[in-house]
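Narrative progress, year one. The postdoctoral researcher (J.K.) led the effort to move from monomer predictions toward full complexes, under supervision of the PI. The following entry was the first complex the group processed end to end, covering 815 residues in total.
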Amino acid sequence: MTTTMPPDLARMGRDPRRLLIWGAVAIAGALAWGFIALVRGERISAIWLLVAALASYAIAYRFYARWIAHRVLGVDDRRATPAERVDDGVDYHPTDRRVLLGHHFAAIAGVGPLVGPVLAAQMGYLPGTLWIVFGVILAGAVQDMTVLFFSMRRNGRSLGQLVRDEVGVVGGIAALIAVFAIMIILLAVLALVVVNALATSPWGTFSIAMTIPIALFMGFYLRVVRPGRVLEVSVVGVLALLVAIVAGKWVADSSWAGAFTLTPRQLVIALVVYGFLASVLPVWMLLAPRDYLSTFMKIGAIGLLAVGVVVTAPMLQNQAITKFATSGTGPVFAGSLFPFVFITIACGALSGFHALIASGTTPKMIEKESQIRLIGYGGMLMESFVAVMAMIAASLLDPGLYYAMNSPAGLLGTTAQSAAQAVANLGFTISPDQLQAAAAAVQEKTLIARTGGAPTLAVGMSQIFSEFAGGASLKAFWYHFAIMFEALFILTTVDAGTRVGRFMLQDTLGNVWKPFARTTWKPGLWASSAAVVLAWGYFLWVGVGDPLGGINQLFPLFGIANQLLAAVALTVGTVILVKSGKLRYAWVTGLPLAWDAAVTLTASYQKVFSSDPKLGFFAQRDRYATALDAGKVLPPAKNADQMHQIVTNSTVDGVLAAFFAVMVIVVIGNALWVCLRAVRAGTTLASAEAPFVESRIVAPSGLFPTAQERREVAAAAAGPVSTARSADGG
Amino acid sequence: MSTSEAPRRGAVPPPRRHPGAGWSRWVGPLRAVRWYLRELTGEAGYDHYLARHASVHPGERPMTRREFEAWRWTEQANSPGTRCC
């Protein structure tokens, strides 16, 4: 394969203006990082984090991503992409790069990069921010772009198929099982975040409940009244959603409040029933319209947050590094900085789930190969930026309030007095009055032990937003606006995830008993949907009742699962590089893989084998089982029943942690063997890459076309037999 | 697949117009935003289908908008897209 130096890289040395601009960006970034690193014991402005992050992203995108795309992967714009070659008008169709970036971003960005950093703020803002920025540059964005590239070169094959084709059957089966199990944990933990955000909050519950009739109306409109007119009905839907948020206050203040005040257990049942219905009903009724709403809210809320952070430039109240980073005794999640800050941040820096999207729909829609840098690498940088903003929103809260909201209920008790006392024991201060005032300001009954990250983020966002729009009077509105958009994200993921899980299960069971594979066979459809919702419903049910705190117990499992999936994705990338004779570049995915494997396997090891009952699941099990045998009740359990619960939960969680790790060790082991074979053979090994077909599409590569690209596009448009697709009728 | 030999443009937004005075200066950006949102939500899918149908099966009757959208729902139901965390 011949790769020429990208024209701009060659030009760089000759153009003093470019050197000057990039030099300035580098200096700004270095100054900001230096300032963040050196300031101790003083409050710093969030602006420094933003400047450091943005300058780092710009340099990484401009130089490292470009180098990977052109040198390591060898993108070739003379080669037709599957979108151009196949172009069947269904899955495969060339899509404008900016539109595809929007699609891809909407698919990868969810609530993960928002809640992970909030929980990781327990270690201080510095370790989390460093990992979010450097993790994405060296690992997360690299993973997304390489998987996108390799899948694109193989007609958009899925991650599971890539593992089977490139690594082997054993690895492929392990990856498939791991993906399914990981999906279940993902759905359970995300649903748990929603439950914790909505429990005993009539305002939030009403607003979210209203999304169902709104979605049904939109679906009916799009199906029956005016098919396909998404924009007009989305405008109506978003307006109705805002009305629902405002109306939530009226409901909460009225005699209806009781009907919308649900306990966590009631919410679990509602979610499981809802998840089942959303999975078996036609997509146009609930799933697709909610997806439109969610996409618009996503773009709107994230845009608003970015503007808010820049305009208000809040001061961070959190410490740079807290004592929990080294002691590992934090109340939000157990374990010390290595490996648990990386496990907790997960999605904002490196997310294995993105590999499922980068190997699903996106590679079938790319117009030109070089656009993988914008869509794969650039899309992930955007997600990382969302994570930085979430870290800022969590860090501008008073630490006392932060710990009162994020420690498990078992530790905090139920009254403002007991919570204030527990926070004082942790070494922070908040008075019972302040705690009640904070809850009253956002019109919630209580903010004590509102774990899961979503309520904390909502309080942070309401502080930012109310500062530039509406003042204190709108604080409660902004809080519920934030809760609504987080819950909407999550429910969209739960809908889609349940459906994907159902298809996986139907597909697998279809191998055993044929009728299951027919997606139209109703009993099979209902049975597999029920199996999927009951699977995540089990963990959700257990999570809300866990005396040790569901988030505290399950979030690490979610992080481990996600990071293990990333290990699978990076393994595939490394294997393909080695097999195609690019051993000298294999470190580009190999080093992030080594780091990720070290982090994740250490975390799994500690979760399984640690003798500290706060950290190790089996040590926890032993401690409570022994006490139970002796007829004792250990806090935070209040009775023998809760003791039994803890024993069961820690056994299940421990087995799962071990299971995930074993699956991934199988994939990596299989991969090492294939790599060894490739290196020994000394030649390139067969890979499933699709053959070369010459491309005829002319389109820019980056977000903004260069002058050269403008001329080429104009020349192509003026060509004699142009089949240019009119992108817009009007 | 297209049969033309000439290079072709990918999907593109409407051409930019020179900004005029007063309100008309907003026409271009607003059209661009509308184009983007129609593409992003798939509302423009039917337009693409018609263009494609005319070039691949010239002379044949294309699906109506209603038929097209119904067909698209079925397609979507059978190939669920993952939404990430």
